[in-house]
């Protein structure tokens, strides 16, 4: 039975290129002549995709984490997100393959989809999407860049808390906020809760900067 390696040797291209062409990867930059040649050789060799490999791919999901294992243990928020994902995936019959951001590569092509947890710059988002278009970002607002995401509704939750304080005439309100940046340090991220907090209280002339403290999202800073 013919293999991808057999086709690659005759087409004089890499096995990865053959795999991407046969899987109709639209993000691959390859000439139409090369693409046509690969399909012709595959047909001549009577190449057939392995049903087993296809089924295995459908049952695997890549989970990309921006935190290291040690950092995650110090952050119960991201730790709980990962555990929730793994539990849900297991119940649906999917196997989770964990990667850290530094490990992002062609390996993302071998899974049914990708879940990326954490804060990533547009360049990082584009890179991951180029490997697998079935990607969802978690805790990173990527809608402006055209990517699906799941994020917490900080806007309404902060306002609900402020309204509760104000209903009891508690108007000297402070906030401890965090400051983040994307994994590659390309973008600084202002805590969206702080933006909502500040804008809402300014409307009522209640914002007092002396009650606001900004630090890093770390145990030591907290």
CATH class of the largest domain: Alpha Beta
**Radius of gyration of CA atoms, rounded to a whole number:** 24 Å
Question: Structural class of the helix and strand makeup?
Answer: alpha/beta
Average pLDDT, rounded to a whole number, is 89
Oligomer: single chain
What is the fourth-level CATH superfamily of the largest domain? Response regulator
Shape type: elongated
Q: What does the main sheet amount to?
A: 5 strands, parallel
Can you tell me the residue ranges where pLDDT is under 50 for at least 5 consecutive residues? none
Query: Number of helix segments?
Result: 9
Compressed to H and E, one letter per element, the order equals HHHHEHHEEHEEHEEHE
Account of the 3D structure:
By secondary structure, this protein is α/β, with parallel strands linked by helices. The protein folds into 3 domains: 4-49, 434 Repressor (Amino-terminal Domain) (Orthogonal Bundle); 55-150, Rossmann fold, CATH 3.40.50.2300; 154-216, no CATH class. The chain is built from 9 helices and 8 strands. The strands form 2 sheets. The protein has a 5-stranded parallel sheet with strand order 2-1-3-4-5. The chain has a 3-stranded mixed sheet with strand order 7-6-8. Helix 1 packs across helix 3 (32-44) and helix 8 crosses helix 9 (192-203). The protein is elongated, with a radius of gyration of 24 Å. The relative contact order is 0.09. The mean pLDDT is 89.
Give a short summary of the structure.
The chain has 222 residues and is α/β, with parallel strands linked by helices. Helices cover 42% and strands 18% of the residues.
């Amino acid at each position: 039975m013919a293999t991808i390696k057999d086709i690659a040797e005759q087409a004089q291209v890499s096995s990865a290129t053959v795999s991407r062409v046969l899987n109709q990867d639209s993000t691959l930059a390859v000439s139409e002549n090369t693409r046509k040649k690969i399909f012709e050789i595959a047909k001549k060799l009577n190449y057939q995709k392995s049903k087993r490999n296809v089924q295995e791919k459908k049952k695997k999901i890549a989970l990309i984490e921006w935190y290291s294992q040690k950092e995650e243990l110090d952050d119960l928020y991201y730790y709980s997100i990962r555990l929730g994902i793994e539990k849900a995936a297991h119940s649906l019959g999917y196997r989770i393959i964990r990667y850290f951001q530094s490990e992002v590569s062609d390996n993302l092509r071998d899974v049914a989809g990708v879940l990326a947890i954490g804060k990533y710059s547009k360049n990082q988002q584009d890179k991951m999407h180029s490997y697998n278009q079935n990607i969802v970002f978690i805790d990173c607002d990527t809608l402006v860049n055209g990517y699906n995401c799941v994020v917490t509704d900080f806007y309404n939750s902060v306002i609900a808390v402020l309204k509760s304080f104000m209903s009891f005439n508690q108007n000297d309100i402070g906030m401890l906020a965090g400051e983040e940046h994307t994994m590659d340090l390309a973008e600084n991220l202002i805590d969206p809760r702080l933006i909502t907090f500040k804008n809402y209280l300014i409307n009522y002339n209640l914002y007092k900067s002396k009650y606001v403290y900004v630090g890093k999202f770390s145990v030591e800073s907290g």
